[in-house]
TrEMBL record:
The UniProt record lists the keyword Transit peptide: no
Domain BioF2-like acetyltransferase per the UniProt entry, residue ranges: 127-272
Organism: Sphingopyxis macrogoltabida (Sphingomonas macrogoltabidus)
GO MF annotations in UniProt: transferase activity
Record-given protein name: GNAT family N-acetyltransferase
Pfam family, one: Acetyltransf_6
Entry annotated with the keyword DNA repair: no
SUPFAM superfamilies associated with the record: Acyl-CoA N-acyltransferases (Nat)
Keyword line: Transferase
InterPro entries on file: Acyl_CoA_acyltransferase, BioF2-like_GNAT_dom
Length: 330
């Protein structure tokens, strides 16, 4: 079930995040975007187009009006986490364009205004609460001295976090397979420290046996926490350290009584669905100018995505989806 909370508290407070060059030259200057053609989670082809990429904020998603669009790239737009209910109106805003909602998913989030940790915790079923508590006990029992949670928010603490998370981040499956692990190069450290100086970052480490085995990285924008990076040591995957860390992080975040929401951003997943408390139907929408070149590209994307969906349905019927996912992550 898709749950949509009362959203007046967010409207008009957070502008749409833009990636690309604004102004009159955006048409020519928007950077190339690679649209991946994937089968079974593996990339089998790529299509490059000059698109203005827009990542909609939670405020944009919860608003009732169609978000305003800046000038497009030479080929069009890539609209991430666009409200599904607003897609029909997008045809009126972009008449004659080629529109393709490539991926539908719920935008999970937690409204934290006037809430507390206990209320969020009670949002889990009794069985899930028992399971989460048991995971924390098992993790503590595995190590002499149990585990500790380190909360990092000052510049010095964030430098420590980035150092501790560096080796761990490279080993996560997100980094190995998707290239989406926590960036820890010098530029990333500088950005993180600068955010900490503005009190715009919250980071957490789960430390056991003298080393970090899980991390959580949360930028803060307009008092909304953004779920950016969660990673853990694959050697301890059976103990769910990332899940344990997230629970303890929520306890500390609620205690600050500052934040208005926790935004899981675009994309779906079991963890987001379990830890979120509300969701809005969204989609990643590709909007292309109606050229022959773009028509051919869109046909290729539609064909590959359709084949992947049918293959997934057949695999689900045969009961082999879980095995395929394990094979992809190897």
């Amino acid at each position: 079930m898709i749950r949509r909370p009362y959203s007046r508290w967010l409207r008009g407070s957070m502008p749409m995040a833009e990636h690309g060059t604004a102004g009159k030259d955006a048409n020519a200057m928007a950077p190339p975007v690679t649209l991946r053609i994937e089968l079974a989670g593996r990339t089998v082809g790529r299509i490059r187009r000059r698109l203005r990429t827009l990542s909609l904020t939670l405020s944009d998603v919860l608003g009732e009006a169609v978000p305003a669009l800046p000038p497009p790239g030479a080929d069009g737009y890539l609209l991430r986490s666009f409200p599904a209910a607003a897609i029909p109106a997008l045809y009126d805003k972009l008449p004659g364009w080629l529109l393709f909602a490539r991926q539908y998913y719920p935008r999970h989030h937690v409204v934290m205004v006037d809430g507390d940790f206990d209320r969020w915790w009670q949002g889990f079923s009794a069985r899930t609460r028992s399971t989460l508590s048991r995971k924390a006990r098992r993790l503590a029992d595995r190590f002499d001295g149990g585990f500790t949670i380190e909360a990092c928010r000052t510049p010095d603490e964030v430098r420590h976090f980035m150092t501790a998370a560096q080796l761990l981040a490279r080993r996560t499956y997100q980094a190995r397979l998707l290239g989406a692990g926590l960036p820890t190069d010098e530029a990333a450290v500088i950005r993180a420290v600068a955010a900490a100086e503005e009190d715009a970052l919250r980071c957490f480490l789960l430390v056991a046996d003298g080393r970090a085995i899980a991390y959580l990285y949360l930028p803060v924008r307009d008092d909304v926490l953004i779920y950016a990076h969660l990673g853990y040591d694959p050697d301890f995957a059976d103990l769910s350290p990332g899940t344990v860390l997230h629970v303890e992080a929520m306890r500390r975040l609620y205690a600050e009584r500052r934040f208005r929401a926790f935004d899981f951003t675009e994309g779906d997943g079991a963890h987001k669905a379990q830890f979120g408390r509300a969701a809005v139907p969204c989609a990643d929408v590709i909007a292309l100018r109606a050229t022959l070149r773009n028509r051919l590209a869109l046909a290729a994307l539609r064909g590959a995505d359709g084949f992947a969906r049918r293959a997934k349905m057949l695999a689900a019927r045969a009961g082999i989806v879980a095995s395929l996912r394990k094979w992809v992550r190897r």
